[in-house]
Amino acid sequence: DIQMTQSPSSLSASVGDRVTITCRASQTISRYLNWYQQKPGKAPKLLIYAASSLRSGVPSRVTGSGSETDFTLTISSLQPEDFATYYCQQSYSDPYTFGQGTRLENK
Amino acid sequence: QVTLRESGPALVKPTQTLTLTCTLSGFSLSTSGMCVSWIRQPPGKALEWLARIDWDDDKFYSTSLKTRLTISKDTSKNQVVLTMTNMDPVDTGTYYCARMTCGGENYMDVWGKGTTVTVSS
Fold it and tell me: Does A96 reach chain B within 8 Å, measured CB to CB?
């Protein structure tokens, strides 16, 4: 199975900050990397697919980049609604594994 | 509008078999490129992908759980069913189904709200 490792596991930031979350795959996955946002008690929501494609309706302050084994999710100017947990997921080969999550907290 | 809704027992006993149903609306699993995945989340922990069934009836399972899982679809009822045998308290958590656009970029774009399962005697 492909292992997905996110860093950091948690992150404390303030409204207006720029934050970056990293996801590393244990083997190359081309650009088959998706990012999800989850708020407490809610189902995850798709933010980014295919490493850098922004899902319709997701604000442009959210960007994804990377390829092969190293990927990043960046939020350019944090808004109050961005405080949540973020997960990466590879969809290159079955089973489609998730990272362990990054909890983004309000400082 | 595309929606998915999970249903099943809220409480199961250890060693029992769990059966969960995902009812689809607004799309058909008989459409090429459509798939449905099941994902679970223990309380306070990360998401764990469990299984997937494709429009052409291909099936894929978590490596660690594949001996316990069975996924199937009933296209006429627009339902996907997941069974998990030999339930244990560590299987307690929220179980989600999600539509997956697959065969290309492969991503889960619509999720159900989830159903909570507790395993306890």
Answer: yes
Query: How far apart are alpha carbons A8 and B25 in whole angstroms?
Result: 37
Q: List phi, psi (to 5°) of A82.
A: -85, -10
Most A CBs within 10 A among B5, B36, B38, B47, hence the mutation to make, goes to B47
Q: CA geometry: angle at B26 spanning B22 and B30, to 5°?
A: 70
pLDDT tens digits along B42-52 = 999 999 999 99
> Tens digits of per-residue pLDDT, A8-25?
999 999 999 999 999 999
**In 3-state terms, chain B is what percent helix, strand and coil (to 5)?**
5, 55, 40
- Number of alpha carbons in the 13 Å side-chain half-sphere of residue A20: 7
